[in-house]
Write a structure and sequence with these properties.
Largest sheet: 8 strands, parallel, barrel
Strand content: 15-25%
Helix content: 25-40%
Radius of gyration: 22 Å
Shape: globular
Strand order of the largest sheet: 2-3-7-8-9-10-11-12
Structural class: alpha/beta
Number of strands: 20
Oligomer: single chain
Amino acid sequence: MSYFTNRRWALNAVGGGLAALAAALFPATAIPAPPAVKLSPAPLGLNIAPWDAFYANAGSGDTLQALLKNAHVAQIRYGGGLYADEYDWQTNTDIVNCPSTAVSEYKAKCATSNALDLASLANRARAIGAQTLVTVNYGSGTPAEAEAEVEQAKAPGQQVALWEIGNEGYGCWEANDYLAEPPERYQGFSPAADATCPMAAQGVSAGMEIMAKSYAANAATFMAAMRAANPDAVLGVPWAFDLSVGGGSVAGYTEWDNTVLTQDKKYIGFVDAHWYPLSYGGTTGAAGNPTAEQAIQTVYRIPAEYAKIKTALQAQGLPDAKIVVGETNVSYRATDTACTPVGALFAAGDALEWLSLGAYSVDWWTLNGYGNTGPTCSHPDAGMFTSNSKPAEESPYLGYLLAGALAQPGAKLTTLTLSPSAVSPSVLAFQSVLPNGKSAVLLINTSTSTTENPTFNSSLSGELTAVRYQAGNQNSFATKTTTWSSPATVVAKGMSLPAESITLLKES
């Protein structure tokens, strides 16, 4: 994670000083939710990297498999973030520790073997009924390598549902050998040297123009080769958020999005948006960091961001392109939210907000963040589980587990209107009609200090199973829930929602 963090932190400084101003000029606004959205085959997803030995190993891996299946995780995004642009699937090696990103380095002594190759990942994904999203190596790979990867995915059990061309090609933290090639021929770039970044050397606008034109031209070559191997391959490109998105903002975002969507339109089946609403690390509420409530309530910004993406796709003649949230967390840096109720409330609200608006899938970053490697959850982390041979659940997993009761393939998900309307700024409410015809409702009280008492109309009936996650009643991992039964007629009269809580109601 530190490698990823340092790279992204470096470029956020370029134009990053405008973030606070942009947040004031472009405040988040709500848009009407659709009446109901039929969810994709893979609503809830998770990032798993080639280096993840805990998922690859039989003992810890089998434990994780059972937990992912229980949460209805249906998509595995494979590649490891920026690692994907320095990873060769054919040799299962990476060149993160090599002096350059030249293709020849993959066979050099500096190359490192990984625990989880693509075939093994695919087998594990199929075992829990999940599909895969693969990020191909654009930064230091070749179109031929990508074509061979698509060809290999035709083998039984190895199918890939979505292919993304590189990780975050708009960022100078990524390997990007093609900058030196036509059409831009930008020389001297190194992902380890910030001064060589086009945006640093030539200014944000001119620099991003170089980045975007280079990517659009060369990614098209990759996509043409991949379609030659499989004409039905679903291909995607990175989406750049504007400066109002604290941890996912991209200086020069308009140039990137417009250029790539325009030039690569004929290949694009989806865009991959990496949603990190905040950019702090460490302890929530300390040293000027956002409070727990502020972190949780960033989910209220999602409708406005979804609308921006959808509007841009329609304007570029891509109304049917999928919106994939390929990475998401409270922040792109490790925080203590993995060990507090904030992680659970954010993970649940984050996923259900994006999905209820129409996103194809939401993929948490990450399975293992290596922040907590012992028997406790006491350090900043980005994972869903502790990183050791006996993995334990961290709080974001509980958010996914509860959200997964609604976010199942083929379910019809919508938001609920609450009464009195004054509770709406604090309570998120979702309903899902599952493929088996049963209904489930999830209520999230995002206020960390106030109990809310809303009423709502839903399709719930009969005897209900209720599950509650509450900040005021937690264990040391912030993963405790309580369960009880209640008739739907009682629930219809109103619910008392404790501060900082999630309440799941599902038909028995």
